[in-house]
Amino acid sequence: MQRLALLSRAFATVFPRFLGAFVLAIALLTGAATGQAQEKWFQTTELNPGLPPPPETLDRGTPMAALESFIYLTDNGHYSDAAHILDLSDLPQGDQAVIGAERAFQLSVLMERKVVVPWRRLADRPDGWLSGSAEDNDTGRVRRSLLIDRLELGGHDVPLRLNRIKPGEDAEPVWVFSRQSIDNIPHLHAQYGPTDLETMLPDWLRIRAFWGMYLWEVLFLPLLVVVALTAGWFAFSIMRRLGQAAKRRWMRFVLRSFRWPAAIVLCAAIIGTATSRVLVVSGFIDAVLSPILLIAYVTAAALAIVFTFDEIFDRISPNNAYELADPMNAHMRSIATTIAAARKGVIVIAVLVASGVILVSSNADNTLGLSLLASAGAVTIVLGFAAREVLGNILASIQIALNRSARIGDQLIFEGHFCTVEQIHFTYVQLLNWNGTRLIVPVSYFVSDAFENWSIEDHAMVRPIILTLSQNADVAALRRVFFDLLAREDPDDVKPMDKAKVHVLDQDAFGIKVRFELPTDNAATFWDIECRVREELLAAAARMEKEDDVRMLPPAPADMGTP
User: Which residue ranges does UniProt annotate as crossing the membrane (predicted)?
Assistant: First the structure.
């Protein structure tokens, strides 16, 4: 009873505190949600007091209407009216009229040249609400600030935004370009505005052609691509010739490794510099060129890494298939196979890292970035289905490199062919046939089919030589000849001698079958020894038959028919 009383007293003390904390948390969450729901605009006392009253036809009630009005006014040269769609709060009141018109002009140039307007993300509702999928962060909520685009300035991206501002208690909220964006316009215009060379072009080259491009762009871009490709080809050719003529080993190494990366970087640098410094292209072209140039630079870096490691691996990897096939070079075969696996690993890692860098570097707020991210799943499915055989071969080649079922230099029997594994590539295995020809076998087919590997683990084996002899043949005499023949061979190739045996396997009407067991420790030489021993045994049998007048070999078909 005393314990029960203590528990009741403790509950009476703690429960009110817990209940109070719970109610307070609910109140805070409710207040935060209410406060967030009420943030439908930015509040200010007045907007652009230094400007004259806006035209009655000016529509700034929705994001789409504000942007359409700005484009319409600037296209017709009404920059003073377009200044009402800018938040000029950071400018002195007396300078807002003059500087506002100037900023409107500069912003219109940027809109034409560098900005790709995301019309799909611009709502035609005052609260900026977009209808759509619940998984899209831009839909299903009230917004007071909209990102139009991001432009690079000083090594970082600066946003270009539309804000919803309520100038006073009784005024209606309007959508205008944010004051932070207006502050960056002069610097952006200096970087992306018309260059001195463009201002010197004749007027007929600066007229619109199609897709929002100027006529000079239509003529300039194909010529620029040809010049860039030609420069890249010259760079590749020069580095190739220098690599062939270089006397120092490290110089040849560097020139071979960086031929393709240098050509790609030079080509991309010419196009990038010409389209951003010499003649600044329009936003549509820039939206296409920027990801292409990014992919080119990342690809060049990845190729430089892959080619550098490739040259290093070529230097340290034994690559002579005949030397690797020597039974004493089992460790070298393992090293060569490990290096081949490392080569594949470097390529796979380089591709994955390059793909990640491209995706991360792509502006997620840009149309291209959204398209890449949105279509990643579909592209993966399509590529996976189309390249399923290639991907299967790549995985199979990695499997061979890991489990070492066939190492570079191993000698094996594949589908009746005596071969040496010469190379294990991503998609195929290159086998050197005994007659000097090459078998190119898809990796997936190679690993799914059974084969004899004569070089794995213990390379010693016993080769059977089966002869059909006469019923009266002197097997003991041929046994002595067989051991004498083995004694004359290289002991490194014929061993261990305790495995050398002679057995009578069978007997029928045609004669007896005798198996001479030839032990060999070298898969590269056993074939010659086997053929040579077989020939000597047959010659010895014929000689015994002639000298001792005892039939050693079975009768020929013509003799069998003679009474």
Answer: 214-239, 260-285, 291-309, 341-362, 368-387
